Amino acid sequence: MWRVTQRRESNGSFPTPFVELDRSAWSRLAKNHPLEITADDLTRLRGLDHPLNLGEVQEVYLPLSRLLTFYCEAVEQLHGVTSDFLMERRQRTPFVIGVAGSVAVGKSTTSRILRELLSRWPSTPNVELVTTDGFLLPNAELRRRGLMHRKGFPESYDRRALLRFLAEVKGGRPEVSVPVYSHLSYDIVPGERIVVRQPDVLIVEGLNVLGAPPVRPMGGTGMAVSDYFDFSVYVDARVSHIERWYVDRFLTLRATAFANPNAYFHRYAALSDEEAVATALTIWETINGPNLVENILPTRQRATLVIVKGEDHSVQKVRLRKL
């Protein structure tokens, strides 16, 4: 029997809207849905300093990818029923998945794994991945608005452009393009765009993709990015663990990406270990930590599924929202 726990809120009075399965219970689901993943696949998918292994892909992400195909097929059937009811021509639109979580928690790796696995199932061969980094305001505009120290916070994005992109994708446009962001230059690349052409599944990965809609000055709210999602995943861990992972990643970047003379953060490449740790902690305490606590973490309850990681970065349990 599966060990399923239905958790209550901290006051013990109301049950959570999630069903919780520990790692062993969730992993049993993979036995009914085999899919081959090789060591070469793993090398290509593994993120920076992310201790991902084949066992985790097979036990955690494989069942999740299969569940997502079931949701995708069900939504497609619902679209067909609705089109028939409205006497409209049936038109398939992309199934959109949002992936949210803190810096350094592993959401980019999660997104890459899901893209790879979903593309191997017969019903979803065409999967695209877009990050919201491309919708950050250019550095020049951030400086003009005095927001360079708030990069990654909700106000640092071109939210209108992101909403327009999602609306066009959901509207079935044949081609929709998004700006390109360079982590080397730490800025939008002028004149470069990625074109999305009616995929079966679109994964949208970003820090604040599950944020609540803004309140309008005259009352009411606008559209939320998550209004366009058919399914959403939040990658979760203790804040103290994510802080340590961020510092570890900073130290790795110091010896790799920051060593490039063209890198925006090249000035950090010459830091000693002690200086690098201190710098990383300062950045975390003034930017990434506050953004997590104030803006990202409060959106966790809005997700369809929450992946909970332990101190060693491995997935410990999964929480799936009840239908």
UniProtKB/TrEMBL annotation:
Keywords (A to Z) from UniProt: ATP-binding, Coenzyme A biosynthesis, Cytoplasm, Kinase, Nucleotide-binding, Transferase
The keyword Cytoplasm is annotated on this UniProt entry: yes
Chemical reaction(s) catalysed: (R)-pantothenate + ATP = (R)-4'-phosphopantothenate + ADP + H(+)
Any one biological process term the GO annotation gives: coenzyme A biosynthetic process
CDD domains: PanK (cd02025)
Residue ranges constituting the Phosphoribulokinase/uridine kinase domain according to the UniProt record: 96-238
PANTHER family on file: URIDINE KINASE (PTHR10285)
Annotated protein name in UniProt: Pantothenate kinase
Organism, as annotated: Candidatus Phosphoribacter hodrii
Primary gene name: coaA
